[in-house]
Amino acid sequence: MMGMSTSVQLAMPASRLQPTRPQVLDAEAAWRQVVARSPVAGFVYAVTTTGVFCRPDCASRRPLRANVRFFPTAAAAQAAGFRPCLKCSPGAARGSILDKIRAHLEAHRDRAVPLAELARLAGSSPFTVQRLFKRRMGVSPLQYQRALRAGALRASLREGHSVTTAIYAAGFNSSSRAYEGAPLGMTPARFAQGGRGERIGYTAARTPFGWMIVGSTWRGLCWLSLAGSRREAEAALRAEFPAAALHRDPALARWIEKAIAGVRAGSDLGSSMSPADRLDLRGTVFQLRVWQALRQIPAGETRSYSQLARELGEPNSTRAVARACALNRVALVVPCHRVVSAAGALTGYRWGVERKEALLAAEREAGKQ
Asked: What's the CATH number of domain 19-84, 3.30.450.40, 1.20.1250.20, 3.40.10.10, 3.90.1720.10?
């Protein structure tokens, strides 16, 4: 629907368009987004020494600040004499292409859609399709399809259908496919039983932001939360995973150390993760997209729920964004403390507004050093 609405506006006769004031960009704020390679920034930047303009998230070498100019649109940059970058294609309408790819994947959930097929649909190369989709969605097209099937499988099992019926209704063409890669984070039969049999190691420690507790399955970190006491922290973990077998694992203390070090340094915990530091995040496709978008917010900065919804291309999903933030199981790794109300109030933090305020204050202080 978004793509259709855009095309109607583009087709509108020029005589019916109302004159608008030129958009004024905050150059310093725009440059910070270029430095962060923000995938959701709504402008382009041009380099005077090369004559090329790019998207802020372009993978090309970062230019010198003195050689950069900012434009609100690709058309404005071209009117000033700059040509589009061949690497990031700043003149292409990403939203409509992405919507088309997503719709195609959702319509063919029952089979693996090759990148070459998506490339023909988008009129681009398989590499470009893969890069664009993963940058905006946080997952590859293949992972997106797997998440779609996993979500349908969860819903069917919750409705009481048998495992076999649920597997085929979700789009898996065989029962073995449903068990490959454990799309639910556990086997379908265990999920139907409330996750009974899952083993989660955990440890807790006192931090400047309260008691922090982390939990991990064999797949990776699945829980990181804050509480007022050790007892409260452990009770929250047990309430979240009531059917799992919990056991203490002191080795997981490294996650707590990394988390606190990240806050003090004004950096993201995710940026300091090694290949061995895997995550075991479980959620719907939309929730995974929200969590990925949260990880794009620079430390010390905030976004409103409605801003995030617009950046995701889902302007009417503000409540769904807020719910995804509330269901986040890994504080700091997925920094939901950086989301505020439209008025800027620090509301809705799962682990306490006072901790949200303390985390943001610590990140901002680190940014000044």
From this structure: 3.40.10.10
CATH code: domain 197-369 is: 1.10.10.10
DSSP state of 12: S
What is d(CA 88, CA 39) in angstroms, rounded to the nearest whole number?
A: 11
What whole-number distance in Å separates Cα of residue 212 and Cα of residue 237? Answer: 11
Of 54, 85, 88, 325, which one is the catalytic site residue? 54
Q: Is 340 helix (H, G, I), strand (E, B) or coil?
A: strand
Span 170-222, pLDDT tens digits: 544 444 443 344 343 434 444 444 445 678 999 999 999 999 999 998 878 88
Query: What pLDDT digit, counting tens, does each position of 250-263 carry?
Result: 999 999 998 888 88
Q: What is the pLDDT of residues 127-182, one digit of tens each?
A: 888 887 876 666 678 877 777 676 665 555 555 555 455 544 554 444 444 334 43
**H or E stretch covering 3:** helix 2-11
Hey, which bits of 156-310 come out as E strands? 199-207, 210-217, 220-227, 245-248, 303-304
Going from N- to C-terminal start, the domains of the chain cover: 19-84, 92-194, 197-369
Axis crossing angle, helix 94-107 with helix 126-137, rounded to the nearest 10? 90
Question: pTM score, two decimals?
Answer: 0.53
Active site residue 54: yes
Distance of CA 163 to the CA centre of its chain: 30
